[in-house]
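hey
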């Protein structure tokens, strides 16, 4: 089968997937699942509870569920070693850092959640920019060379 007929022929799959790449995918999937869970929770409370504004609660829940698609798709792409998936995964982590900061500023039980989110976001960013991850995804650096691990 020619490379034109087989889209995975040019995918960098000769080597086994690095553990760092699997860990980054797991963290992205964890964030996506947390967003789905939060969205379902807000949606159910908006429909069955007594919110100040039912429409706003339902919209917030649906928004969280839709936002979960970004890290979930990125996690799937990372597991399949698709180069495009690193961008959405990095964007997800960058978006998580201000949320973690705001949770840390609260005087409530949200502080442990902020700590957990910050740790996950920073760990995922470190894993995503690691040279082994870059090489496994086939991402080319400046000059067109695949990034080398040094």
């Amino acid at each position: 089968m020619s490379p034109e007929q087989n889209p995975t022929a040019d995918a960098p799959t000769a080597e086994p997937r690095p553990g760092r790449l699997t860990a980054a995918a797991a963290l992205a999937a964890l964030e996506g699942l947390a967003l789905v869970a939060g969205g379902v929770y807000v949606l159910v409370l908006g429909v069955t509870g007594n919110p100040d504004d039912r429409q706003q609660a339902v919209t917030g829940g649906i928004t969280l569920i839709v936002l979960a698609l970004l890290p979930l798709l990125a996690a799937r792409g990372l597991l399949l070693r698709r180069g495009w998936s690193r961008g959405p995964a990095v964007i997800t982590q960058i978006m998580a850092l201000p949320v973690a900061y705001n949770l840390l500023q609260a005087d409530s039980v949200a502080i442990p959640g902020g700590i957990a989110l910050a740790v996950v976001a920073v760990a995922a960013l470190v894993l995503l920019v690691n040279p082994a991850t870059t090489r496994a995804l086939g991402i080319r650096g400046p000059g067109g060379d695949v990034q080398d691990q040094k």
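DSSP finds six helices and no strands in the chain. The CA atoms of residues 132 and 149 lie 6 Å apart.
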